[in-house]
Amino acid sequence: MFRHILQVSRRQISGSVQRQLLNKVPEKQRLFQEVNGMPVHLKGGVSDAVLYRATMGLTVMGTACVIYQLVKAAVPQKKN
């Protein structure tokens, strides 16, 4: 009986539809190892450039907000 359950479970797992994925690793390795003077964080194309600029913009804005809050906390408020 145990053998029958084991065989059924094997059939369900192996009989399921498996997605065939194309291995893109060698292609990406060639792209990123290419010597073309471009920084590695921009070699991925337009999407990498957009993500890089968005990250830098958010970083600059966050730094400015932190500095503003520090200055605001350091300067005493005038009492009227």
Task: Provide an overview of this structure.
The mean pLDDT is 83. The N and C termini lie far apart (88 Å). The protein is built from three helices and no strands. Helices cover 64% and strands 0% of the residues. The radius of gyration is 28 Å and the shape is elongated. The protein has helices at residues 2-14, 25-33, 46-74. The protein has 80 residues and is mainly α.
Which parts are unreliable, with pLDDT below 50 for 5 consecutive residues or more? none
Largest sheet: none
Total count of helical runs of at least 4 residues: 3
β-strand number: 0
Our measurement of the CA-to-CA distance between the termini, rounded to an integer number of angstroms, reads 88 Å
Shape: elongated
Q: Please identify the structural class as seen in this structure.
A: mainly alpha
**Considering DSSP H and I runs of 4 or more, what fraction of the residues is helical?**
55-70%
Q: Give the C-alpha Rg.
A: 28 Å
Let me know the average pLDDT.
Answer: 83
Could you spell the SSE succession in H and E letters?
Answer: HHH
- Beta-strand share of residues: under 5%
Membrane topology: Single-pass membrane protein
GO cellular component, one term: respiratory chain complex IV
Protein name: Cytochrome c oxidase subunit 7A2, mitochondrial
Subcellular location: Mitochondrion inner membrane
